[in-house]
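[job 4471] stage=fold_predict status=RUNNING
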Amino acid sequence: MTMTKSFAPSVERNKEPIFDILKKYISKGKLLEIGSGNGQHAVYFAEKLPQVQWTTSDTRESQTQIKLWLKEAQLKNLLGPVVLKVGNDDFPKGAFDYVFTANTLHIMSWKENKCLFKLLGKRLREGSLAFFYGPFNYNGNFTSDSNEQFNKWLKERDLRSGIRNFEDVNQSMVKFGFKFLEDFEMPANNRLLVFERLPFMAK
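[job 4471] inference complete, writing structure tokens
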């Protein structure tokens, strides 16, 4: 049976606005994408950023689709997919200059979010950047009616999921050694948050 690669319309809509932000920060180096989904984002970004070694990762269930997208793209700077389930697995070996993740924080539980932030603090070196794309609340408030409805749908699907508060994310990232750099407004009531790893403090 021949597998057909999936296509995500939402990725097609948001890939250009996301790239417009990423290219301000990224020109070369190594990037780990956490939660690559079907690999559609990775193919677009890796093609646009040929000097960046882009490593895809996701849970075991997503591996097949990512492989289909990567096989078709045949990009030398596009690697993976690596099996990475936050809370279970460590990053792949090697030093990464950037970590990018899209539409994952609201899918994962808050406990898994904190595991991710801790892992970022442990594995990223000084000056490395972390990018979080997706919907966020501010001061506990939804930024749109559609986000509120989306959050209800998430909760019905899994009570542990839900749109995260920017303040909680920022506080946790600061706790694990990052400083907040920028919060970009994106289409469809989404945001793109940028954090930088600070120097490791001597204990």
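[job 4471] summary: The radius of gyration is 16 Å.
[job 4471] exit 0
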